[in-house]
Amino acid sequence: MNRDTGKCNKICGRLCVELKGHLASPLSISSGEQERTDADVILDETGQPMIPGSSLAGALLAYSRGFVPKEDLYQLFGAPRGGKPGSSSDRQSRLFCYDTVLKDGVTGIRDGVKLGENKTSVHKSKYEIQMIERDAKFRIRIELIQRQECLTGKGTIQDAWNWDLRWIKRWIQGFNTGELRIGGKANRGFGMLRIESARFKQFHMEESEEYLNWLNWHWDDKDAFKQAENIDPTDDIDSLVSLEHVLEVPLRIPYTLLVRSYSTAFTKADSLPDYGQMTVKDEGEQAVIPGTSLAGAFRSHIARIVKQIAHLENWEKAQQKLEEYFGTWVTGEKQEDQLQSSRIVFEEIKVDGGHGLPQTRNAIDRFTGGTIKGALFEETPWTGGTCMLRIRWKRDEKEDDIICGLLLWAVLDLLSGILPIGGETAIGRGIFCGQDKEETDILLDGEAMKEQKKEGCMQAAAAWCRGGENGTVSRSI
User: Fold this and answer.
1) Which ranges of 78-198 does DSSP label H, i.e. alpha helix?
2) What's the mean pLDDT when you consider all of the chain?
3) Quick check: helix, strand or coil at residue 377?
4) Of the chain's two ends, which shows fewer C-beta atoms within 10 Å, N or C?
């Protein structure tokens, strides 16, 4: 009942939506426990990894703020009507998100470390997180309730359903394009989902027969969606533009790559190397480059350029200047409410083609020329293959050119072999080049960037480094 008016705001309809698909990247949703790693994944009562309904609802809310009208957003997710939480006028969310179990979910461990200016590890900065590997299957269940108040200005119950389906379709589009991500490290390539099928069931609660059908209905019934309607996950909503810019760069590995995976170190056997390239088993074995490795290499390289252009005292000052785009660098000096998350998303890269290249190496005594006792080790770097680098950021007319320009500095050096990725870069690993022998196109939102556009963005970035006003040089992308 609406307490302000004393009138009953009865339920008129229910829209039950089922989305099926798989993880397109690793997923990290922490339980708060630290028994295995610094951040263990959350499990259900049977020990299977899961996505809590609260995590899904939170991700949908954060994403929907970019395109759902304010009043509809309040109706979907709830909000205090009078602006004071806890008052009698609070509005409850009419969106119900169920817990999502990840079937065939394989858990793994990713380790990482913060590197300093000279690419050496920072003291006490090593960490490990547990995650669910890509390709785990899921079934997301969402229920939307239509109340009498929801029909205001929308007409019939069918009109209200159509209005809600508009947001459902946009969420599906967001999942499949990578704009809508779930869980931790979502700005570093984790939490991307692919929706393969979608269907919905409607219940008109003002009709007694359908009301009884709903009382006897259950999501897991064999014929639960027998007369359901399907949604094509590949459909685009033309009237709703993308919320993010996407920079894409086709790359090739001309030599070798080594982003270390130490998972074998705890189960050392004669057939296993001491360490090797991080891989996943998809269509055979494929090398992967984590978003954390890309973000760290890009940020460190850009910081050196910013230091020179802005005439900053040291590399740390340059890192702090980049915090508004890449996130907080030194957490110990800031309060919790001052911390900033990264506005730039580095997707995890999966390499097509190539293969592991087992090698045995030994340290040599530079005085005698002989081998050093106990210094023999085995490694398996990756050689060959192609991939696509994807970097995202939310649209902002005032800062789009600045962000794009900063990234272009690193991308152009990456294509020139100046910016290597991964480990053992001092001996030639981690060098990339364009896929074509001729000049490689850098794509922005699916279209090749022209030289004039590249120059304009890099000039905007340089002006920002020197402290110039954004509007004096920045042109909206």
Assistant:
1) 157-177
2) 86
3) strand
4) N
